[in-house]
Write a structure and sequence with these properties.
heterotrimer; A: 470 residues; alpha/beta; Rossmann fold; Ubiquitin-like (UB roll); de novo design (two linked rop proteins); 3 domains; 5-stranded mixed beta sheet; 15 helices; 39% helix; globular; B: 239 residues; mainly alpha; 11 helices; 71% helix
Chain lengths: 470, 239, 52
C-alpha cells in the first residue's frame, strides 16, 4: 500500500540507500515494489544531479547502431505490457502513440510537454525542478526507440526556475562521455495559456505559429514540428518510461490496479495541512492521500478532481472515493492530470465557480464559435446566479442546455472540460446556487479565492461579485 | 475598300471593348455579391447557398469575359498588343501604362481565381488573405478602363464606369460599416482609400481621358493616331 | 449554409454554428453532404468514411 512521501514534508524516503554503481539495467536487483518510485531518493527541493540520479536508478544503456532497432522495439513492447498511459490528462496509451510515430514517414522528433497550463497542477514543474534527469532519460529512451535525433523539452515561459534546472541538467548531459551519440537536448518555452499545452497547440507554437490547437490533419504524430512525425508526451509520462526501461513492465504493474497499473504524481491542494505533489499508486483511497498530506485543516465542502477540466464531488463522497479512473468514472469524475483540490467550508462555491468559469471562457483559443459563444454564455449565467435576482430553475436549465450545445463542438477538449466543471458545480452546489439566485451574494463571496488562477486573471470579467458586501 | 479596312478598327477591336465593358460590369457584380455573401444576407427565397453559388458563378463568368477581352485585344491587328502584355504589366507599346494596369488587375484576378478553385488544398487564412486582392484589382481595372478605353469620351463608357464605381463604393461601405468598430484600423483605411480614390477620379477624369488629345498623351503609338492628312504607314503602303 | 444544404443532418445553434447529427449519411444524401462540406466558408466540415 502506499506510503507516499511528498516533497513538502520532512519525512525520510521510504527506500533504503541503494548501492552506488552504474551497472547496466537488468543486472541490478529490481527495487521492492513500493512507493516512492518517481520520487525515490529525493531529499530536498534541489535538483538531483546526474551523478545522484545514476546512483539511485542506475544507468540505462542507449545503444546506437545495429542493436538500436531491436532495442527500440523491445522498449515499446515493454511499455505496451506495462499499460502505461499518458499523464498529461488525456490518458492515451503510450505504446500506441510510439508505434504511430514510428510508423510515420520521416525522422521523428521527441517533444517533452511540461507546459502545464492547468493552474491547479504543480507536478510537471516539480519534476523538472527536482528530477530533471528522470524526465530526460525518458525523452532520450523514446528518441532512441524512434530513431529521433532531437528531444525538445518545453517549459512554461513563466517558469524560470524550471528552465534553469533543465538547462543545467542538459549541460550535465552534454559533458558526459558519449553524449554526442545520443539525441540532442534542447530547451524551449511555451506560452502560459491554458490551451497552450495541448498537443497540437504546442506543436504549432514550436513551428513558429500561435499556440492554438489544430483540428485539421495532419496530426502531430504524422507531421508535427518541422513537418516531422512528432512524439509529444507529458514530462511525468516520460519519467515513468525511464523507470520501466530499467525495471520492466512486470515491476511497473506491481503497483496500481489491473486496469490502471503503476504510480502517479498527484497535486493536492486546498484545505489540507501540507498541500503539494505526492506520489500515489492508482487505486489508493482518497483518504490515504489526505492523511499523507497531514489531514484536512478545516471542513471540506467538496473536492474538485481533475482540475478545471474535471468535476466536483460533494464532501459526502470523500470517504468512499478511490483514486483510479474506473472508480471515479461512474461518479462522472476523472483524475485528469492528477489534480485533487479540497474546497473549504468557508469558501463560497458559487463565487469560485463564477470566477473560474469566466477565466475558462477567456482562455479559449477563440477558434470555434460554439466554444467562444457557449463558454461566455455559461460564465454569464453563473455570474448572474452569483449576483442574485434570477430564477434558479431557469438558470439551471440554461446551464444544461448550453452544456449540451457546447460539449464536443470544439476543436479541442477545452470546452468539454469547462462544461464538465460548470455542470458538476451546479449539481454539487445546487443548494448554494439556488440560495444565491434568490438572495444574491453571501458573506463569503469576496473572500480571497481558493481556486488558483494565474496572476492577472479576471481582467476581462469581474473578480468581485457585484453587490457583495466587502 | 480593303485599304480602309486595314487602316481602321476591326471586329476584334469592337469585341475587345464590349467584352471589356461586360467584364467590368460582371466584376462589379461579383464584388457586390461577395459582400452580400460574407454578410450572410439571405431570404427564404434566396438562401445563403444560392447567394454563395451566384457569387462564385458570376465571378467565373467575369473571368471568362476577361479572357475573351484579352484574346480579342491580342487578335486585333489595329493595336500592337501581345499576349505577353496581358500578363507582364507595362511591357507593351500601346498605351503601356494604362494597358499595363489592366495586366496588373488581370494578374491579381488570376491569383484570386486559382486560389479559389484550389481552396480545399490551402489553409483558410491563406485563401482569405489572397481573396482580399479583389478589392485592389477592381479600382486598377477601372483606371485601365478609363485610360485605355477609347469610348470614354463618347459618354456611355464613362457613365458605365461611374455607375459601376458607385456600386462598388456602396458595397465597400456596407462591408466596412457592418462590423464597425471591430478591426477599426483596417476599416478606417478602407474608407480612406475609397475616399482618396474617388477624389482622384474627380480631379483626373476631366483633364485626363475626358480632356483633349488623351489618345496621344496616354501613349498611343503615333502611327495609330488619327491624322487628317492620313500619313499612316499602312495607308501609304496600300497605295 | 451547410444547414440549408443538408437539413437532414445539420441544424443551427443560437449563434449560427452547425450542430451535426452523428447519424451516418445514407447513399441518397451523399452528394448533398459533399456539397454541404464544400460550401463551408471556413472548411469546418469534414466528410469522413466510416471504418466498419
Amino acid at each position: 500500500m502506499s506510503g507516499s512521501p511528498s516533497l513538502t514534508s520532512e519525512s525520510p524516503t521510504l527506500m533504503d540507500e541503494t548501492p552506488a554503481g552504474r551497472e547496466p539495467a537488468g543486472l541490478r536487483p529490481a527495487p521492492t515494489p513500493t512507493l516512492p518510485r518517481l520520487l525515490a531518493g529525493l531529499e530536498s527541493h534541489e535538483a538531483m544531479s546526474l551523478d545522484d540520479h545514476l546512483a539511485i536508478h542506475g544507468d540505462i544503456a542507449l545503444h546506437r547502431g545495429r542493436g538500436r532497432a531491436r532495442e527500440g522495439e523491445h522498449l515499446i513492447e515493454e511499455i505496451e505490457h506495462s499499460g502505461l498511459r499518458g499523464h498529461g490528462g488525456g490518458g492515451f496509451p503510450v505504446a500506441r502513440k510510439l508505434r504511430a510515430v514510428a510508423g510515420a514517414r520521416g525522422r521523428p522528433i521527441v517533444v517533452v510537454n511540461a507546459a502545464e497550463g492547468e493552474p491547479a497542477s504543480q507536478k510537471d514543474r516539480t519534476l523538472l525542478q527536482t528530477l530533471p534527469h528522470l524526465v530526460i532519460d525518458g525523452g532520450l529512451l523514446c528518441a532512441n526507440a524512434l530513431g529521433a535525433r532531437e528531444v525538445i523539452i518545453c517549459v512554461c515561459e513563466s517558469e524560470l526556475s524550471s528552465q534553469e534546472t533543465v538547462a543545467r541538467a542538459i549541460d550535465e548531459r552534454r559533458r558526459m562521455p558519449g553524449a554526442g551519440r545520443l539525441a540532442e537536448l534542447t530547451l524551449a518555452t511555451a506560452p502560459s495559456g491554458y490551451v497552450a499545452g495541448q498537443e497540437s497547440a504546442l506543436v504549432n507554437h514550436l513551428n513558429g505559429g500561435p499556440a492554438k490547437p489544430t483540428f485539421t490533419p495532419p496530426m502531430p504524430f504524422q507531421q508535427g514540428v518541422r513537418r516531422r512525425p512528432t512524439l509529444v508526451n507529458n514530462a511525468e509520462t516520460l519519467a515513468h518510461v525511464a523507470l520501466i526501461a530499467r525495471h520492466g513492465a512486470h515491476w511497473f504493474r506491481e503497483l496500481g490496479t489491473e486496469a490502471q497499473p503503476g504510480s502517479a504524481l498527484i497535486t493536492i491542494s486546498g484545505a489540507l495541512a501540507h498541500p503539494g505533489v505526492y506520489e500515489i499508486e492508482y487505486g489508493a483511497p482518497l483518504n490515504s492521500l489526505i492523511a499523507a498530506g497531514g489531514g484536512l485543516t478545516s471542513g471540506a465542502r467538496a473536492v474538485l478532481l481533475g482540475g478545471y477540466a474535471g468535476a466536483w464531488l460533494g464532501a459526502e463522497y470523500l470517504d468512499e472515493l478511490i483514486l483510479s479512473e474506473e472508480h471515479l468514472g461512474p461518479h462522472g469524475a476523472t483524475l485528469g492530470a492528477g489534480i485533487v483540490l479540497l474546497l473549504s467550508e468557508a469558501a463560497c462555491p458559487v463565487a469560485e465557480t463564477a470566477r473560474v468559469a469566466r477565466w475558462l471562457a477567456e482562455e479559449g483559443a477563440g477558434q470555434c464559435g460554439p466554444c467562444v459563444n457557449g463558454l461566455d454564455a455559461l460564465a454569464l449565467t453563473v455570474e448572474a446566479i452569483a449576483a442574485g435576482g434570477v430564477n434558479a430553475a431557469r438558470c439551471n436549465q440554461r446551464i444544461s442546455r448550453l452544456g449540451g450545445l457546447v460539449y464536443g463542438r470544439g476543436a479541442c477538449a477545452h470546452p468539454d472540460g469547462a462544461v464538465r466543471f460548470i455542470t458538476s458545480a451546479a449539481r454539487t452546489f445546487a443548494a448554494e446556487f439556488a440560495d444565491h439566485a434568490e438572495h444574491g451574494p453571501c458573506d463569503a463571496c469576496n473572500r480571497p479565492s481558493e481556486l488558483p488562477l494565474p496572476a492577472g486573471a479576471g481582467r476581462g470579467g469581474s473578480t468581485r461579485i457585484p453587490g457583495a458586501r466587502p | 475598300m480593303n485599304i480602309l479596312a486595314t487602316a481602321g478598327p476591326s471586329t476584334y477591336w469592337y469585341l475587345t471593348r464590349s467584352t471589356g465593358a461586360v467584364a467590368l460590369v460582371l466584376l462589379t457584380l461579383a464584388i457586390a455579391l461577395g459582400v452580400v455573401d460574407v454578410e450572410r444576407w439571405s431570404t427564404p427565397r434566396w438562401p445563403r447557398f444560392v447567394v454563395d453559388s451566384l457569387h462564385r458563378n458570376v465571378s467565373l463568368l467575369a473571368v471568362v469575359f476577361l479572357l475573351l477581352h484579352i484574346l480579342t485585344a491580342v487578335l486585333d491587328s489595329f493595336a500592337p498588343i501581345s499576349l505577353v502584355n496581358a500578363v507582364i504589366p507595362f511591357s507593351g507599346s500601346y498605351r503601356p501604362f494604362w494597358l499595363g494596369l489592366g495586366a496588373v488587375s488581370f494578374d491579381l484576378i488570376l491569383a484570386v481565381t486559382f486560389t479559389s478553385l484550389l481552396r480545399q488544398r490551402m489553409g483558410y487564412s491563406t485563401w482569405r488573405t489572397i481573396h482580399w486582392l479583389t478589392y485592389a484589382s477592381w479600382p486598377i481595372a477601372l483606371l485601365h478602363t478609363f485610360g485605355t478605353g477609347s469610348d470614354v469620351k463618347s459618354g456611355w463608357m464613362l457613365w458605365l464606369g461611374v455607375g459601376c464605381f458607385g456600386v462598388v463604393v456602396v458595397a465597400i461601405l456596407v462591408r466596412v460599416l457592418a462590423g464597425w468598430p471591430e478591426q477599426l484600423r483596417t476599416r478606417t483605411a478602407a474608407l480612406a482609400g475609397t475616399g482618396i480614390f474617388s477624389l482622384f477620379l474627380l480631379f483626373w477624369l476631366p483633364g485626363g481621358p475626358l480632356g483633349s488629345e488623351w489618345a496621344r498623351r496616354s501613349g498611343t503609338p503615333p502611327a495609330l493616331l488619327p491624322h487628317s492628312h492620313l500619313t499612316s504607314a499602312s495607308l501609304r503602303a496600300a497605295r | 449554409m451547410c444547414a440549408e444544404l443538408l437539413p437532414e443532418r445539420i441544424t443551427l445553434d443560437e449563434w449560427g454554428y452547425p450542430v451535426i447529427d452523428p447519424e451516418p449519411i445514407p447513399r441518397s444524401l451523399l452528394d448533398h453532404a459533399r456539397r454541404a462540406a464544400q460550401a463551408c466558408p471556413t472548411f469546418a466540415l469534414l466528410l469522413e468514411r466510416d471504418q466498419d
